[in-house]
Specification:
Order of helices and strands: EHHEEH
Helix content: 40-55%
Number of strands: 3
Strand content: 15-25%
Number of helices: 3
Structural class: alpha+beta
Length: 59
């Protein structure tokens, strides 16, 4: 099975080591790689990797 392109907020929280509540708050910030698909909020895996890289550079 191929790697996932997007994960749930709960899965993203586990990947980041953060609470689900914190990641839901991040989904409302510009630049965080989340999107709505119907009622679900998903987080792009590639986008999340890039977002973490940008955060580690201070931006």
């Amino acid at each position: 099975m191929p790697d996932k392109l997007a994960v749930s907020v709960r899965e993203a929280a586990a990947l980041l080591g953060l609470s689900t509540k914190t990641v839901y708050q991040l989904t409302h910030q510009e630049g965080f790689p989340s999107f709505k698909l119907g009622e679900r909020t998903l987080v792009s895996v590639d986008g999340l990797r890039e977002w973490v890289r940008q955060q580690s550079k201070g931006g």
